[in-house]
């Protein structure tokens, strides 16, 4: 049974959802089925269109429409890597035709797209990694700002979640803020709310669910690996032929490929395109010693692969327990 408890915040009211839990739009992982189930659970599912590049096997205009079809009548949103939209502006148009509840933009200037998104009736969410970018996003029309700490899986920068979130909350008020980076359970949600956030954006934990895209070998790897086994690196992007701008790197689970090629990007670049072809083949085959499995430092808290709606309910129960027990535990009201 899904949780009947609700944690009402500025973000739940803005998005008309029951719980302050947003699915990180992980490219190649967060498809329509996963987004649907997060929304069924009372959060907001976001489809991950990534670079909107068909070469990756997801993100094309047709793929976007197909994933929204899988969400059915449930309200979901979509996320893009902002700088990639300059080369594929039609992807945003395809998404807006599907009437998303929200559009999330990460890593780039939102100004060319902000008005179009808001005029289409979608809530504009912007992910940032610095105070400067947070202020700029708020000034350019972001309605929700995601403060992403370096603990997050996938691409990010250098600031840690714990100090970054309250600083962003103070800097952009009254624009509501969601916390991202290392949140895997209800304790993380409760902590984020205490920092002033109005929601959390969760990625890696939802990778290990039944509805997530991605090879079963990757999900199994996530379940058995701890946060100590991650690193931030450019090696996987270099192998895929993607030139990410500074200061962004990708946090992933260490494997044989990373151990060999981390900090050897120039040498690795010389091996393309042969390395790129081998890399994508490894991803299709579930070879986790070569292919990338982006994951965050919250790995230690992941030990199963439930349904996503069930997971939302679990996280909410844990957060309610943590919040309701705090007064008795810390204010001397207990036995």
- Ends apart, CA distance between termini: 32 Å
Sheet bearing the most strands, described? 8 strands, parallel
CATH topology category name of the largest domain: TIM Barrel
Percentage of residues in strands? 15-25%
Structural class computed from helices and strand pairing: alpha/beta
Number of strands: 11
SSE ordering: HEHEHEHEHEHEEHEHEHHEHEHHHH
Q: Give the CATH class of the largest domain.
A: Alpha Beta
CATH superfamily of the largest domain: Aldolase class I
- The side-by-side strand order for the widest beta sheet comes to 1-9-8-6-5-4-3-2
Morphology call: globular
Q: From the coordinates shown, what is the CATH architecture of the largest domain?
A: Alpha-Beta Barrel
Q: Estimate percent helicity.
A: 40-55%
- Total number of domains: 2
Describe the structure.
This protein has 335 residues and is an alpha/beta fold. The chain has two domains: 10-213 and 305-330, Aldolase class I (TIM Barrel, Alpha-Beta Barrel); 216-285, no CATH class. It has 15 helices and eleven strands. Helix 2 (32-40) runs parallel beside helix 3 and helix 8 crosses helix 15. The longest helix is centred in the C-terminal third of the chain and has 23 residues, at 308-330. The two termini are 32 Å apart.
Give a short overview.
The chain is an alpha/beta fold and 335 residues long. It has 15 helices and 11 strands. It has helices at 10-15, 32-40, 61-71, 89-97, 111-119, 131-139, 161-172, 186-194, 204-207, 216-224, 235-240, 256-261, 265-270, 274-285, 308-330; strands at residues 21-23, 45-50, 76-81, 102-106, 123-128, 144-148, 154-156, 177-180, 199-202, 230-233, 249-253.
């Amino acid at each position: 049974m899904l949780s009947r408890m609700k944690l009402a915040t500025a973000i739940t009211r803005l998005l008309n959802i029951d719980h302050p839990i947003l699915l990180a739009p992980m490219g190649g992982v967060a498809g329509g089925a996963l987004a649907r189930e997060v929304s069924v659970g009372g959060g907001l599912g976001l489809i991950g269109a990534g670079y909107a590049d068909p070469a990756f096997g997801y993100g094309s205009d047709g793929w976007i429409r197909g994933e929204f079809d899988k969400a059915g009548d449930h309200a979901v949103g979509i996320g893009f890597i902002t700088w990639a939209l300059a080369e594929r502006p039609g992807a945003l148009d395809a998404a807006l035709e599907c009437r998303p509840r929200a559009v999330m933009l990460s890593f780039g200037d939102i100004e060319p797209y902000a008005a179009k998104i808001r005029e289409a009736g979608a809530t504009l969410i912007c992910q940032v990694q610095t105070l400067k970018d947070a202020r700029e996003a708020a000034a350019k029309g972001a309605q929700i700002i995601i403060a992403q700490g370096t603990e997050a899986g996938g691409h990010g920068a250098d600031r840690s979640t714990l100090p970054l979130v309250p600083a962003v909350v103070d800097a952009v008020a009254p624009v509501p803020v969601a916390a991202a980076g290392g949140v895997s359970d209800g304790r993380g949600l409760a902590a984020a709310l205490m920092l002033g956030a109005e929601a959390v954006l969760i990625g890696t934990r939802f990778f290990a669910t039944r509805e997530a895209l991605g090879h079963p070998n990757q999900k199994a790897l996530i379940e058995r690996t701890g946060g100590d086994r991650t690193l931030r690196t450019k090696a996987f992007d270099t192998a895929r032929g993607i030139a990410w701008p500074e200061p962004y790197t990708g946090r992933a689970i260490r494997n044989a490929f990373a151990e060999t090629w981390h900090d050897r990007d120039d040498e690795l670049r010389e091996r393309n395109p042969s390395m790129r072809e081998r890399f994508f083949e490894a991803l299709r085959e579930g070879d986790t010693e070569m292919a990338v499995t982006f994951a965050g430092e919250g790995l230690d808290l992941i030990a199963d692969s439930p349904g996503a709606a069930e997971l939302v309910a679990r996280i909410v129960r844990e957060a309610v327990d943590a919040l309701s027990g705090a007064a008795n535990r810390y204010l001397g009201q207990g036995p």
